[in-house]
Task: inverse folding
């Protein structure tokens, strides 16, 4: 689940794994198909990345058991503070999200 969320969030990012063209095509098709079933909201790639990042955060919490209640949500007023944070290793390409999708990045830190 975490890997699938990572690959979806990494779509169209420089430095993201490029050997997953078929998988990426399936993600894009699934986003469109899901969007067709939603009546009250649009669901495109930016919304899908937010949903995937939230799901990854919950999966990591369940996997590690490390969390505090209530779970913090994204606060746009604190988006500037995210610039000081960085992901490392295979998730490093997600650092690019800080500038244009800070909410997505927030759920990965």
Result:
């Amino acid at each position: 689940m975490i890997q699938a969320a990572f690959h979806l969030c990494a779509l169209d990012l420089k430095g993201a794994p490029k050997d997953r063209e078929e998988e990426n095509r399936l993600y894009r098709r699934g986003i469109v198909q899901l969007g067709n079933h939603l009546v009250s909201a649009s669901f495109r790639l930016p919304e899908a990345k937010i949903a995937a990042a939230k799901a990854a955060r919950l999966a990591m919490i369940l996997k590690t058991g490390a969390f505090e209640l209530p779970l913090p949500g994204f606060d746009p007023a604190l988006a500037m503070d995210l610039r000081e944070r960085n992901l490392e290793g295979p998730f490093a390409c997600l650092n690019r999200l800080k500038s244009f999708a800070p909410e997505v990045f927030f759920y990965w830190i």
